[in-house]
């Protein structure tokens, strides 16, 4: 079986977690490979996400590594046994892999938290707002690429429509609410939709007002996705170079602190809705 040329972020994460277990056990890749009847290269490919691994082999490796966290091991086995092709696979070869990895991350998350200073969270954007953002790209995107990105972003909302809707806490800076991407009409429609979304039982929208003096972080727009177990939490960051996915505990701790600070500094839900409504009426 040839190695995968481009493992997904989730496949790479499974491999990275298996590597953490091996390194915690102080075991060389050569020893682990021999245990599976292979060699060091086999383990290296598995830990890089380039080779698939069965749930049975994950359990065998976990036993070899004396991994004592049963919930983590079972979560890794479940990741290894995933065989379904999510709806995002329809866009492979059409959109960059970061788009697909984000949709897969959201699909498997147990909750989402985000903080946005410049714009509304992507998963809560209206079609007109999305088009306005993508039309501003330089060099300009072809019309078919814009259409694909708009359609894809709107489909990501299906996590709120499933039998167990995904809990999502969106913290949005007042600056983002006052941005007029696409003009007054588009901006007003976006704010009205944000108010509508905040009425969903699993969606919380809170605003960081201009008067906030504590919260000063404005360089990132992190999306924090809770895993089945805390060790599998993931932070997704957008950049001009594409999406980045972080899973190291030091990074997770940093962004949990950032999000907690943003939550403490933001208005309550009712106050946030009143401010959003006020800004929408001003447009």
Which properties best describe this structure?
283 residues; 6 strands; single chain
In short:
By secondary structure, this protein is an alpha/beta fold. The protein is 49% helix and 12% strand.
What does this structure look like?
The chain has helices at 9-24, 29-35, 40-47, 55-64, 70-81, 97-108, 127-135, 143-155, 174-178, 184-198, 249-265, 269-282, and strands at 111-116, 168-173, 203-208, 223-226, 234-239, 242-246. It is an alpha/beta fold. The protein has a six-stranded mixed sheet, with helices on both faces. β5 and β6 form a beta hairpin. The longest helix has 17 residues, at 249-265. It is elongated.
Strand content: 5-15%
Question: In order across it, which strands form the biggest sheet?
Answer: 3-2-1-4-5-6
CA distance, first residue to last residue: 58 Å
| Overall average residue pLDDT | 94
Molecular shape? elongated
Low-pLDDT sequence parts: none
> What Rg do the Cα atoms give?
21 Å
Q: Tally the helices: what do you get?
A: 12
* Record field, number of beta strands: 6
What's the order of the H and E elements? HHHHHHEHHEHHEEEEHH
Q: Which structural class is indicated by helix and strand composition?
A: alpha/beta
């Amino acid at each position: 079986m040839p190695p995968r040329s481009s493992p997904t972020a989730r496949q790479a994460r499974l491999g990275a977690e298996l590597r953490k277990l091996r390194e915690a056990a102080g075991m060389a890749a050569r020893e682990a490979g021999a245990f599976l009847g292979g060699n060091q290269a086999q383990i290296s490919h598995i830990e890089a996400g380039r080779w698939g691994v069965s749930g049975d082999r994950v359990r065998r490796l976990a036993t070899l590594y004396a991994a004592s966290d049963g919930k983590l091991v079972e979560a890794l086995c479940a990741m290894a046994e995933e065989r379904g092709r999510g709806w995002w696979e329809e866009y492979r070869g059409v959109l960059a892999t970061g788009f697909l990895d984000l949709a897969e991350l959201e699909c498997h998350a147990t909750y989402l938290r985000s903080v946005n200073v410049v714009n509304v969270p992507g998963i809560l954007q209206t079609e007109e707002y999305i088009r306005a953002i993508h039309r501003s790209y330089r060099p300009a995107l072809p019309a078919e690429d814009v259409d694909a990105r708009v359609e894809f972003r709107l489909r990501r909302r299906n996590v709120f429509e499933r039998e167990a809707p995904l809990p999502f806490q969106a913290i949005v800076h007042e600056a983002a609410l006052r941005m007029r991407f696409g003009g007054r009409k588009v901006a007003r429609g976006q704010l009205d939709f944000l108010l509508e979304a905040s009425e969903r039982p699993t969606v919380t929208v809170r605003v960081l007002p201009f008067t906030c003096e504590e919260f000063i972080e404005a360089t990132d727009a992190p999306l924090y996705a809770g895993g089945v177990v805390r060790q599998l939490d993931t932070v997704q960051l957008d950049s001009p170079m594409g999406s980045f996915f972080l899973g190291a505990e030091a990074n997770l701790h940093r962004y949990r602190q950032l999000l907690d600070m943003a939550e403490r500094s933001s208005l309550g839900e009712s106050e946030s809705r009143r401010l959003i409504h006020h800004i929408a009426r001003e447009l």
